[in-house]
Amino acid sequence: MNDENQSLRKELAWWDCSAIILGIIIGTGIFSVFPQLIANHNISLGLIMLTWILGGIFALLGAMCFAELSSIFPSAGGDYTYLRNIYSFKGESLVSFLFAWTQVFVIRPSSIVILALIIGNELDKAILKTNWMPLGNVLTTALVVVFFFTLTNCLDLKTSKKLQNTVTILKISSLLLIIVVGFLKMQNVQAINSPVLFTVGGKSFWNSLTGLWSALVLSMWVYGGWNEAVYVAEESKNPVRDIPKSLLVAIFTVSVLYICVNYIYICFLSPEGLAKTSNPASDLMLVWFGAKGSTIMSIIISLSAAGAINGLIFTGGRVSYAIFKDYSGLSNLTHLHPKHRTPRKAIIANFILSVILLLISCGKIEFVESLTYYTAGVFWYFIGLVIISLILARRNLPKGKIPFKVPFYPFFPVLFLCITAGLIWGSVKFKPFETLAGISILTLGIPLYYVLNLNRDQFKEIPFDDSNIGSS
Predict the structure, then answer these.
(1) pLDDT per residue as tens digits for the range 267-302
(2) Do residues 264 and 177 touch, judged by C-beta distance below 8 A?
(3) Alpha-helix residue ranges (DSSP H) falling in 134-222
């Protein structure tokens, strides 16, 4: 089969890339338990809002770093491509392999399962009521959801793209509903709650600062997904122009929405009330519109999680596709569907791993917390390595030849690198067992790499010359 037939179609405009990243970022976190967890760390309006503002700023810093790398290496695989091209030496690329190993076997399936379990749990409470499904309502619903979105992503990129755009519009609309209704009703509640802007509740400055930082670990999880658009650079019509634009537009939009929604939460529930509820969005709907409003919000949360699952499966197939191309032992999984040009086998491989985790969970929603911390340490470790790869690339490339450059270099990349180190520390500090479990899976990839390397196709390392910059 010729190279033209084995290349991914360039069908994504900047809005399509923005829809993918918006669909992943705006998941269930903003509607459910994360505002509560953050409020438990910061009891004042000012500190809670500062947490969300800083989270948006940090995500934007990371997005700009990734935008520069995507303009240099606009090919499918995102982080994997950057790590492979920067850290490869004489045909060896252990770093990029371990990243892909953790993405395929730890991070992405875990994220999909977390969202699927939340959907099952929300629909079980809002619609299904009695437990009548064969494997239980939660587990059966979660399995059906993962199967459905795997199928749509295998069939056709256009189908997946339209589905992602539609779900993203629904999620943004639901956030706007909370914001608009909240501000319209604000006059009636200001006298009741009127939270104090800054109060430390008897805490020392250092303890308050520690609480703020630990809360940032949580808010960055909710902002997670800002780097996802770069995975589809090879399918973008104009990756050099569109990927940076889609990242910046998506992060700014999400930040504004999150800050406004949390302000509404605080004004109606008070900081203390927010710290006591695991589902502030449904509580607001219950206050504003009664039981039916709460049910509607559960459905919206499910749609939000569905959009995130769709985006994760879409980009996850591209990550697997990128690594499978580099190893002859896995080359059979690089096959593209002859009609739809989608990496079907790679997507199905992700599906199988997600199903295994779902079966292990037995449909218990408590499994979500364990999976969250299971992925955190390894995720931020590799994000840090990607940022270092940007600094290394800058040393080898002519400044005038880089299509998109991070502003205030090297301050922004170094600052974000320090942030990733702090997030790794936060993960180990608050959930050491789960974090170290994820790291242990990472280490298992080391012997596997050298086994596969015996039959490894020597991929062509991309040298730092002008002809490769901005080309796919």
Answers:
(1) 888 777 888 877 788 788 888 888 888 888 888 788
(2) no
(3) 137-155, 157-193, 205-222
Look up residue 5 and give its two tokens: 């037939």
Pair 220, 423: CB distance under 8 Å: yes
Nearest to residue 94, comparing CAs of 104, 110, 107, 80? 80
Beta bridge partners of 92: 89
SS3 236: strand
Question: For 35-52, how does the pLDDT look when each residue is reduced to its tens digit (9 = 90+)?
Answer: 887 887 766 777 888 889
The DSSP letter of residue 12 is B
Q: What gap in Å lies between CA 117 and CA 115, rounded to an integer?
A: 5
CA 402 – CA 390 distance, rounded (Å): 11
Total residues found in the chain within this entry: 472
SS (HEC) of 167-184: HHHHHHHHHHHHHHHHHH
Contact 79, 240 (CB under 8 A): no
DSSP one-letter string for 321-384:
HHHHTTBGGGGGGGPPPTTT---HHHHHHHHHHHHHHHHHHTT-TTHHHHHHHHHHHHHHHHHH
Give the Cα-Cα-Cα angle 27, 29, 30 (nearest 5 degrees): 95
How many of the other CB atoms lie within 10 Å of CB of 48?
26
The domain defined by 14-468 folds into Amino acid/polyamine transporter I (1.20.1740)
Distance CA 307, CA 129 (A): 24
Identity of the amino acid at 314:
F
The distance of Cα 292 from the centroid of its chain, to the nearest Å, equals 31
Q: Which residue has the tokens 């399918």?
A: 235
DSSP 456: B
Alpha helices for 223-339 (secondary structure H): 239-274, 280-324
For 407, other C-beta atoms within 10 Å of its C-beta total 9
H/E element, 86: helix 79-87
pTM given for the model: 0.77
Residue with tokens 């509580």: 283
| Average pLDDT of span 191-205 | 52
Quote the pLDDT of residue 383: 92
Average pLDDT of the residues in 446-457:
68
Q: Are 181 and 288 contacting, i.e. CB atoms less than 8 angstroms apart?
A: yes
